[in-house]
């Protein structure tokens, strides 16, 4: 397989962000529809969250993307409650999202997410040009991994990071329940390759990496770097902090 240098790895752009986001939600909702009743109480890789909690978070995040007022409400709560979450306002915000939807049944969670997802995507893609350049701080502490950048541009958050979040939580639910997501299309490749390019640029070290399975590919940066071979989804779980990594695999990227 031809190795792609960092600069040639396809990235998610503003032009295709809406389509990729819609496909990520579709993959997630298809998986949720196939879960049995017991699966919703299964613990996930995200400490303290079972599958139902994770979906509650995703509904809340989508509602924030769909409504600037709701995003502001959640953001204010996160800032006010950060101290209770090791200073991490995002963890406080996520906790609010989970609690806001704790009363919903499994079927109601699916319905709520299916209804809000299109509005969330529209809310993300309509973010204006000047706002897209604004840096959004990333709190340290709590569940955040050491080594992540201190901020992310709002446009990148809207176009890419929220989609990565949906995609990786689909992986989390798949891992927790043993129910396989539909990986027959190229969504995994699009999301993983984009994250690989960001990860390579972020650490800047020479490496040749072969990712196997859905979303796989071969990538090279610099010369005489170490060789890494790992399953693509296992790579994403590692660099997102779900499982520990060694060497360059201990370098995180934002999901």
Report how far apart the termini are. 26 Å
- Architecture (CATH level 2) name: Up-down Bundle
For this structure, what is the CATH homologous superfamily?
dinb family like domain
Largest sheet report: 4 strands, mixed
H/E topology pattern: EHHHHHHEEHHEEEH
- The CATH topology annotation reads as Four Helix Bundle (Hemerythrin (Met), subunit A)
Radius of gyration, CA atoms, in whole angstroms: 18 Å
Determine the structural class based on helices, strands and strand pairing. alpha/beta
Assigned CATH class: Mainly Alpha
Please, how many domains?
1
Shape: globular
Topology:
Layout: E1 4-5, H1 17-33, H2 51-66, H3 68-81, H4 89-100, H5 106-125, H6 129-132, E2 135-137, E3 151-153, H7 154-177, H8 187-203, E4 207-212, E5 217-221, E6 227-231, H9 232-239
Parallel strand pairs: 1-5, 4-6
Antiparallel strand pairs: 2-3, 4-5
Helix pairs in contact: 1-5, 1-7, 2-3, 2-4, 2-5, 2-7, 3-4
């Amino acid at each position: 397989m031809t190795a792609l240098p960092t600069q040639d790895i396809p990235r998610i752009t503003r032009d295709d962000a809406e389509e990729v986001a819609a496909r990520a939600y579709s993959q997630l909702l298809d998986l949720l529809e196939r879960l049995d009743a017991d699966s919703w109480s299964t613990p996930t890789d995200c400490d303290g969250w079972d599958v139902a909690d994770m979906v509650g978070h995703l509904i809340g995040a989508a509602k924030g993307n769909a409504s600037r007022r709701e995003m502001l409400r959640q953001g204010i709560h996160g800032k006010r409650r950060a101290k209770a979450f090791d200073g991490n306002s995002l963890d406080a915000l996520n906790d609010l999202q989970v609690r806001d939807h704790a009363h919903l049944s499994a079927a109601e969670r699916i319905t709520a997410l299916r209804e809000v997802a299109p509005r969330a995507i529209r809310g993300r893609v309509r973010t204006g040009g000047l706002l897209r350049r604004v840096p959004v701080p990333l709190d340290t502490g709590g569940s955040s991994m050491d080594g992540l950048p201190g901020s992310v541009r709002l446009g990148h958050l809207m176009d890419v990071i929220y989609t990565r979040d949906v995609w990786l939580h689909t992986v989390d639910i798949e891992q927790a329940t043993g129910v396989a997501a539909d990986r027959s299309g190229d969504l995994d490749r699009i999301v993983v390759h984009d994250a690989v390019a960001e990860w390579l640029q972020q650490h800047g070290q020479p490496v040749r990496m072969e990712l196997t399975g859905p979303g796989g590919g071969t990538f090279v940066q610099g010369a005489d770097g170490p060789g890494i071979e790992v399953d693509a989804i296992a790579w994403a779980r590692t660099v997102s902090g779900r499982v520990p990594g060694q060497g360059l695999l201990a370098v995180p990227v934002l999901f």
